[in-house]
Design goal:
The protein is of the alpha+beta class. Helices cover about 25% and strands about 35% of the residues.
Length: about 160
């Protein structure tokens, strides 16, 4: 029982470290929580606040979350946070001089997402090598209904 607690406590520390190293900051940070993390997958969530600026113009009479924002939520949790974790597991420590770049997306959208919804990201690693990560990523609602899914690739690189 003590060993399980120690592992859970260690995982919380790793998650806190990962969140601390994510370069995105409010108002463009779309991660509320990382709920699961290991070498093969990450899970996390984000609550879409009804007063977010992008709803004012998309669309004023019937606000809908833009696909680019849904893609960004998936990328920040499923690629950036996951990539940082994988780099930490490889012994990387020089995150102050690193940047992230999304290199490829193929996302299919299934349902509209409205303000005030909490969305859940599930990302599974396809490969990670030489700082490049490719994942199968899905976004679901609180009823576990699929909102969008696809494959994303990205990389961490040294800023010049």
């Amino acid at each position: 029982m003590f060993i399980i607690f120690e592992i859970m406590d260690s995982n919380k520390k790793i998650i806190a470290t990962v969140l601390d190293k994510i370069p995105h900051q409010p108002p463009f940070r779309f991660i509320d929580e990382i709920t699961y993390l290991d070498n093969n997958r990450i899970e996390g969530n984000y609550f879409l606040k009804e007063d977010a600026d992008f709803y004012k113009g998309h669309f004023p009479e019937f606000p809908i979350t833009p696909g680019v924002i849904l893609t960004e939520i998936m990328a920040q949790i499923g690629m950036v946070a996951f990539g940082i974790y994988l780099m930490i597991m490889q012994g990387e420590t020089a995150f102050a001089n690193m940047a992230t770049m999304l290199t490829e997306t193929n996302i299919k959208f299934k349902k509209q997402v409205l303000p005030g919804q909490k969305v859940f990201v599930h990302s599974e690693k396809i490969f990670f090598r030489h700082g490049k990560l490719q994942c199968n990523i899905s976004l679901k609602d609180n009823e576990n209904k699929l909102l969008c899914f696809g494959i994303m690739s990205g990389m961490l690189f040294i800023k010049t």
